[in-house]
Structure formats: structure tokens, C-alpha cells
Amino acid sequence: MPGEPQGDCLFCKIVEGHIPATIIRETDTTVAFRDINPQAPTHVLVIPKAHYETAAVLAAAAPELAADVLRETQAVADDEKLESYRTVFNTGSGAGQTVWHAHAHVIGGRGLHWPPG
């Protein structure tokens, strides 16, 4: 059920404190932690504490929570003193989503080229 913790979800386990992560920010509704496989000097994941499989499901079911996630991406960028950064939501396996819990990547600290890939 959307919003409910999933016992087999890596990010739900991080939210519940069952799996360690380098948490750098936390609000009532979100958690931000360093990616274990960083693609840039700054690579932080911002997740809703509630479980939604994809960014699309999150946006449709809980737009206010999606806005919280986006606000936190800016807060992470501010904390990390990033003048430029990229926010990425991978939605679906074809786009590279490997954990089925909506999350935003905040990537910066080096030049980022376009198109990505």
C-alpha cells in the first residue's frame, strides 16, 4: 500500500534505522543521506520517509510530500555549498531506478555535462 513501510525495501530500512547510512539531513517527512556509490564529489539521496515506489506515484498520491523532497534537495545543495547541481529522479528500471522507493539524487561538486548518460 502506498505510504506504508515495506519490509523488503532498503530505503524503508534506512528510515527505520535498521540499515546504517550517512544521514546529513532529516525532517519530519524526509531523510537525506550520502549515496554509497557516489557519481560526483557530492551525491546525496533525498527520500520521503513514507514509501512510494516511484517519483510519479509519489507526485500523484502525495504532492505535498513530493514538494518536501524537492525543498530538501535545495537545502542539501545549500548545506553542501553547491553553486550548481543536478536533481535526478530515476523512474522505472529503463531509467536506472534500482531501489523501488522514490528518491531524488542531488549531484554536484564537478562539471556535469548534457546530455547525461
UniProtKB/TrEMBL annotation:
Gene3D superfamilies: HIT-like (3.30.428.10)
Matches recorded under InterPro entries: Histidine_triad_HIT, HIT-like, HIT-like_sf
CDD domains hit by this protein: PKCI_related
Pfam family, one: HIT
Domain of life of the source: Bacteria
Annotated ranges, domain HIT: 10-117
Residue ranges annotated as motif Histidine triad motif: 101-105
Cross-referenced PROSITE patterns: HIT_2
Name under which the protein is recorded: Histidine triad nucleotide-binding protein
Organism: Streptomyces doebereineriae
Lineage: Bacteria, Bacillati, Actinomycetota, Actinomycetes, Kitasatosporales
